[in-house]
Write a structure and sequence with these properties.
disordered N terminus, three-stranded antiparallel β-sheet, D-Maltodextrin-Binding Protein, domain 2, Arc Repressor Mutant, subunit A, five-stranded mixed β-sheet, 12 helices, 311 residues, alpha/beta
């Protein structure tokens, strides 16, 4: 096979699944990772890449210890392949738009702490209201591309900006310093720089409250970093350190407000509020199953806030 681009004799030999594999290999830089994402064996993925190269008449990747390197021919093809992906996603969104009943699968993506403390406890009522709905939740902080159909709805701590999205604020709440009730209930006022802290890992260092904490304490005070809020809360209940969280969430774990010196109380008052944002692709907003989950989450969170129960 030479690297000169030729037109395949049979365009029907091009399968969308093979182009999906090509996109996954290009984005992940690894055949193994691409196979895992698409749910096939690496050996199968390798054979499909070879078949695609034979069909197109070009070499697409150079394989090495560092992973896959795109050939010039592959780089030249990617804009057309990405355009094909966008067109297929539009076909799927258009098909979803003609649904008339609240039924089927709704895929949500959200941080693990939001899933644990807010959304999962509500799913029983959602199921009672819409028994033909099936919910899939990816509890993760990874970036999810709504344009590519990687989820139907996302809940994020920062407002999503990219793409043709509909975005609404779901929640805004203040954070407090909370710790083990045995340690801090009715204790003497503490200084922020004298406490041991439990906080988010480096992947979440961009969050406003993470940046605030970094400006008020020394790294040596951090006893635990973790990307799962539930793990941080569990560690706080066992006295490993203190955590920034909404008061209502802390109370759910049996935590107490940490008494602070006056200057530190003033510093905590400058903490940016924690926010949650709900987003979906604009083409899917009025699809009945998407609209039903959207409305349900907004109604339930509004009711919780009215009762003083929201995070």
């Amino acid at each position: 096979m030479n690297a000169t681009m030729t037109v395949p004799a049979d365009l029907g030999a091009l399968q969308w699944d093979d182009l999906r594999l090509l996109l996954a290999c290009q984005r992940l830089g690894s055949l193994t990772a691409a196979a895992a994402q698409l749910g096939c064996h690496p050996a199968t993925a390798s054979r499909r890449v070879t078949h695609l190269e034979d069909s197109l008449g070009v070499v697409l990747f150079r394989r090495g210890k560092a992973g896959l390197a795109l050939t010039p021919a592959c780089v030249a093809l990617m804009p057309a392949v990405e355009a094909a992906e966008a067109a297929i996603q539009q076909v799927l969104r258009s098909a979803k738009g003609v649904e008339s009943e609240v039924r089927g699968v709704v895929r949500l993506s959200m941080p693990p702490g939001v899933a644990d403390a807010l959304v999962v406890p509500l799913l029983g009522r959602l199921r009672d209201r819409h028994p033909q709905l099936q919910v899939e939740i990816e509890a993760s902080t990874r970036y999810v591309d709504l344009e590519r159909g990687e989820a139907d709805l996302v809940v994020r701590v920062r407002r999503p900006e990219a793409g043709a999205l509909v975005v609404q604020q779901l929640l805004e709440t203040r954070l407090a310093v909370m710790g083990s009730r045995a340690q801090f209930f009715a204790s003497e006022p503490q200084r922020l720089r004298d406490l041991q802290w439990l906080t988010w890992d480096h992947d979440l260092a961009h969050l406003p409250h993470t940046r605030w904490l970094s400006s008020h304490i020394d790294d040596r005070q951090i006893a635990l970093r973790c990307n799962a809020q539930s793990a941080l809360m569990a560690a706080a209940t066992r006295g490993l350190g203190v955590v920034l969280c909404p008061v209502v969430e802390g109370a759910q774990y049996g935590l107490a407000l940490v008494p602070l010196m006056a200057a530190d109380q003033q510093a905590v008052a400058t903490l940016p509020p924690a926010t949650l944002w709900l987003a979906c692709h604009s083409a899917l907003r009025q699809v009945p199953r998407i609209a039903a989950v959207w409305a349900f989450l907004r109604e339930e969170v509004a009711a919780m806030r009215a009762e003083g129960m929201a995070l």
